[in-house]
Amino acid sequence: MDVKQKVKLVIERLKNLYPDAKIALKFENPLQLLISTILSAQCTDERVNEVTAKLFQKYRTAEDFAKASLEELAEDIKSTGFYQQKAKYIKEACQILVEKYNGEVPKTMEALLELPGVARKTANIVLANAYGIVEGIPVDTHVRRLSQRIGLVKANQPEKIEKELMEIVPKEEWFIFPYLLQAHGRKVCLARKPKCEECVIKDLCDAYTSKN
DNA sequence: CTCCCGATAT
DNA sequence: ATATCAGGAG
User: What EC class does the entry list (predicted)?
Assistant: First the structure.
């Protein structure tokens, strides 16, 4: 089957299965989304939401984070893992926001990529969910795993995977696509033990059809 | 490529 | 015990 046709069927079936698929991180403004997304590296969204519920009470503006004690900030985000790195990223990124962007989160890919701790995946998420600007497809661990298992892409590096996906996923689906794969990745197409028998797209999946 | 790194599932 | 969780920097 043509890979573009396959993508359309995958999207159609997953939309039907997960009609409410959307970002799982809780945020009230672009700054909160930026911080949450940085924290979400190698950590479940659920835990990030637990941490940010308290964090965003304590730190309300980019200035608050920029002025924060590194040790204290690290302690505040400890349970998300990689806490020393993430604390530095957040503090330094917010210092840049204060100095260059009047304390606001910039709206361009170029400006976002200059922030420490922010690469394409994080930038794509912030642009799309805070500003409605869809320039690409954020490739996280779920998007990568499912895209490879199903056989939508051949590449291994996130940036190459994103490029391949942008060529086969219709642009109007770029926004919803990663959330559909994330929902399916968390409920059915698990990393360690995928529940292939209850999967609604197993007939389209290379990993499944090659084993059965 | 390695390092950062706590919490949970298996 | 080990793999994995909305990654990114050096």
Answer: lyase
Q: From the alpha carbon of A43, which nucleotide's C1' atom is closest? A: C5
pTM of the entire predicted model: 0.93
Residues in chain A, total: 212
> What is the domain extent for residue A203?
3-22+138-209
Could you give the number of structural domains in chain A? 2
How long is the CA A177 to C1' B7 vector, in angstroms?
A: 28
pLDDT tens readout for residues A79-104: 999 999 999 999 999 999 999 999 99
Which of the 93-132 residues on chain A come under 7 Å of nucleic strand C at their beta carbon? 115-123, 125, 129
Same domain for A193 and A165: yes
CATH assignment of the domain containing A101:
1.10.340.30
For A106-132, the pLDDT digits (tens) are: 999 999 999 999 999 999 999 999 999
Q: How would residue A156 be classed by pLDDT, with cut points 50, 70 and 90?
A: confident
One domain for residues A104 and A170: no
Domain boundary among A96, A115, A131: A131
